[in-house]
Amino acid sequence: MEFVLCLKCNVEKPIVAFAKNSSRKSGRQFYCRVCHSIKTKNHYQNNKPYYVDKSKSRRELVNQLKSNPCTDCGQMFPACAMDFDHVYGEKEFNISQKLGVSVEHLLKEVAKCELVCSNCHRIRTSSRPSKRRSQSIGSRLASRRVSRPSREEFEQLIKLYPASKIASWFGVSGRAVGKWCKSYDIVPVGRGQWGRLRRKILV
Ligand SMILES: [Zn+2]
Ligand SMILES: [Zn+2]
Fold first, then answer.
1. Same domain as 154, residue 125
2. Which of 142, 166, 194 is the last residue of a domain?
3. What is the distance in A from the centroid of ligand 1 to the CA of 187?
4. What does the alpha-carbon distance between residue 150 and residue 173 come to, in Å, rounded to a whole number?
């Protein structure tokens, strides 16, 4: 596995401890995931008024878009009782929960939806196969703040390094690494507690 020096914390980490960035020549960020998340948090704290303002104006736009009759029952309700139901194309994000995106990006997502009141939305959802509902849990997991390696990347890492080492590279607890194993359905292979755990599972 390739190791790269993080330009922020000066620690050599495996390449997968750096988030992907297609605009960079290496295809990865200059800073490791841990340093990157600290940088992002600091940036938000230093520019809080800008982001608060931005989300307020997006909220107003969303409410404006919601002041239309329900597609199913034709009635008008306050914006808080109206939902965007994704019916066309691939759902990228939940419109009411992601107000930091550009207006263009937001409208693109709205175009994939039909406006329905929350009552009609519930009726629609209950008659859908459960597969769709479990997918939405998946997308919630994917949008977690701590960015984790992909399944393939993680599988490679856990084969080669102890969980404690991986935990330190990603700035998470050993327990979190255990949870990654569980959620990716990977049986850890290796020394120490992982080896013992594996033997327990296999025997
Ligand atoms: Zn770093
Ligand atoms: Zn309705």
1. no
2. 142
3. 28
4. 18
Per-residue pLDDT of the chain (203 residues; tens, 9 = 90+): 889 999 999 999 999 999 998 898 888 999 999 999 999 999 999 999 999 999 899 999 999 999 999 999 999 999 999 999 999 988 999 998 888 888 999 999 999 999 999 999 999 999 887 655 555 555 555 545 667 888 888 888 888 888 888 888 888 888 888 888 888 888 766 556 656 665 566 55
In sequence order, which residues have a C-beta less than 8 Å from that of residue 87 and are 6 or more positions away?
112, 113, 114
Expressed in angstroms and rounded, the spacing between residue 119 Cα and the centre of ligand 1 is 48
- Ligand showing the shortest atom-to-Cα distance for residue 10: 1
* Residue 167 sits in the same domain as residue 200: yes
| Inside any domain, residue 172 | yes
Give the distance (Å) from ligand 2 centre to CA of residue 77: 9
- Give the C-alpha distances (Å, rounded to integers) separating 37 from 17, 64, 164, 173: 12, 33, 20, 16
Ligand 2 geometric centre to CA of 59 (Å) = 21
